[in-house]
Amino acid sequence: xxxxxxxxxxxxxxxxxxxxxxxxxxxxxxxxxxxxxxxxxxxxxxxxxxxxxxxxxxxxxxxxxxxxxxxxxxxxxxxxxxxxxxxxxxxxxxxxxxxxxxxxxxxxxxxxxxxxxxxxxxxxxxxxxxxxxxxxxxxxxxxxxxxxxxxxxxxxxxxxxxxxxxxxxxxxxxxxxxxxxxxxxxxxxxxxxxxxxxxxxxxxxxxxxxxxxxxxxxxxxxxxxxxxxxxxxxxxxxxxxxxxxxxxxxxxxxxxxxxxxxxxxxxxxxxxxxxxxxxxxxxxxxxxxxxxxxxxxxxxxxxxxxxxxxxxxxxx
Length: 316
Description:
CATH architecture of the largest domain: 3-Layer(aba) Sandwich
Domain Flagellar motor switch protein FliN-like C-terminal: 233-304
CATH superfamily of the largest domain: CheC-like
Keywords: Bacterial flagellum, Cell inner membrane, Cell membrane, Cell projection, Chemotaxis, Cilium, Flagellar rotation, Flagellum, Membrane
Protein name: Flagellar motor switch protein FliM
CATH topology of the largest domain: Chemotaxis protein chec
Membrane topology: Peripheral membrane protein
Oligomer: single chain
Main location: other
Number of helices: 10
Largest sheet: 6 strands, antiparallel
């Protein structure tokens, strides 16, 4: 017997719910989701880049670990020791949580306000000040933008900061027993460090499993245009020493030992002889010598063909 048209959607919804429950019970196998590592690495880079123009000292952002477990277990360790931001991801129809521990906030405040690190770090259990909470909100806003860019590799959604909390019992985005994924990030500045953590309910990642399981290789790997531009700019600023060679003579060790001050060494070169320009002992150009405004100059006539070995030697 075939289901009626009104029964078919209900059957499909029921099958989808059963599949979702099975996936939820099974948990996440991080080894089978290689894109998560790439996404979180890009998130760390994006957060660091967003803050570099705001601080005078050097800062460091890096992914320190990714684990799966229970949502409540992740938050219990940060009670009264962190500020969390609850973000809504409309494209996923759900919420995620980003937290900054006490050391992160204290270090960020000192970095932003120009401390040189000479004062001892803050080591006291107290409520966060209004300035510290405002700094945390600024960081959350930057993280939201970095999240959107990073997860754009697999899913297009915004991450909108809805509210901040300092007490973990109010940071509710799901049942404490629900499966979730936590990524931890190390933040360093002024020889001090803190931790940022990201908690994503597994139910939000289940629909993205297929995309997260992909492996980007070769030319398919996403390129970061800012990184490519920075590399190109730094390479172009590298200083290279050029040497103009008019003529080369091969002498024996005995002939060199017999050279005396004032001795004249004859050359076969003429005013029309081409001069070889070298860099790192590799031939680069043929040129002719001349004069301009009272100084000797070289006019490049021809590029000397390079093989792969020569090119690697020049770069080295």
